[in-house]
Amino acid sequence: MARKVLATFFQPRHKLIVRASIAINILILSWVMYQSYLSYEYEYNQAQNQAKNLSKTLEEQVKSIFDRMDLVILDIKNTIHERSEIKKWSIQEINQILTSRFDYIPEAYALRLVDEEGYYHGSTMMDVQVANVSDWHFFRAHKENPQLGLYISEPLRSWSTGEWIITVSRRMNKASGQFDGLVLGTIRLHYFNQFFNGIQVGQSGNITLHTLNDFNMLARYPLLEDKIGQTIKIPEAFHQMLAQGKDEGVWESFSPVDDINKVFSYHTVRRLNLAIVVGLANDDFLSGWRRNTFLWIVFLGLSFGLHGFFLYRHLKSADMLEEQRTSIITSSKLSSLGEMAGGVAHEINNPLAVIQGRSEQIGRILSRQPVDLDRAIVLNQNIQDTISRIAKIVKGLRIFARNAENDPMGSSQIEEVIESTMDLCRERFRANGVHVQIGPIPDVVIECRETQIAQVLVNLLNNSYDAIRDLKVKWIRVEFSVSQSMIEMKVTDSGPGISKDIQEKIMQPFFTTKPVGQGTGLGLSISSSIIDEHGGKLFLNTESPNTQFVILLPVKAGQQVVRSA
Q1: Which residues are registered as beta bridge partners of 483?
Q2: Which of 126-135, 197-206, 255-264, 405-414 has the lowest mean pLDDT?
Q3: Residue 65 and residue 168 in contact, taking contact as beta carbons nearer than 8 Å
């Protein structure tokens, strides 16, 4: 079955339509691929913009949270400085100050005051007043560095609840400038996770808050608790942008945390030593594009399949029509040959009789002494000429009878085409009293299938013969004229012409004026299609007083036209 289908598609006569179909399908496929590429670029750019906008918005929100914490801490610090030293305040007084400020920062988990020895000297959480933080990093950092400003710690476990927290702190100094303790606020990292949870980043996206100096993860959505407080390995593209001092940027890579390919965007808050990173997974933001692409592939597959099926059916139908056309043309040829058979037989029998007679004469000459060689030579030449005449007739029959549908165009002398055609018809016309006059034949070459041009001429001559054989005056003229690019052949007979009411119908298939059983009505239709295929035209000259058909054919370019006498 597959071989039959391929054989149908690769038929030489189907080459143009198959190539056109393939070209159209390639154009459609290219257009779909281009549209798919544009859609991919759009989705990708949208994801980049969304990631940038989210990271920028979150950076502003995070900065706002810590700015509010810092303002409250500075206010507490300034209030405590009114008495110079922390221990000059009672714990109850400090607690009142801390509690009065606590409501201004809903993000805070607790506010505390730590003395120079690391003990809490006030807290909004009363159950941890005996705690000591002197060994914690944020305490040592302030104690050892008088110039240190606002300090955000690494993630810590709360003593009271065990939750992950970070501290935001500032140093307190005595009047002498010596270390006097800290004012600090704590934020539960769960707060950030809840805050990030309300932001749409897709099923596999993420939001991460981490420090800039050591890339310590402070918070992440979705939460990976085992990663909190851990140093994460950042992608090389991110590292390079930070090294170049860029406070924002976009890149694409596999996440070092969950190994998912994502588009990342970051914004930094350098004075707080923080970076906010938003990652949008390719599988999320390209899911719609992939679904649409899949549907397009299915649609194109079905379309190409249906197109191929209907094209195959069309080509098969065309093959059947071509076979029928070939059969009809063959039948038309056989019909013409049948009509000419008697004349052709007579045309061959006469030369055979001549050959037989000349051969007998040569035999008698050779039996006598002396032998008349001159006479024998003349008779032999007559035999050779007669054989050549028979050969021409047989050649004309062979050319006319063969199927030339798939023959390539070739160069043919118009004179040779006319002579080979007349060799088939001449005796029939002579025997029935039809006078045929062939005008001077131009010495020109045409690009044609000689067999098909001969078939057209035979059809026209036979039609003329059938139309005039019962008339008193019976003649047929074949005349020629040549322009720079076309040769015109006129076939005129002594008939009175074709009536106006059927002039427009005579070229239609199966239309005939002959009696039933004497014509197929296909001769002129086939002849017209043959001339059309040769780039010419066949038409009835309605201006002629007699029946006249005109054939126009292009002359082969680049030749000098010479009329024969």
Answers
A1: none
A2: 126-135
A3: no
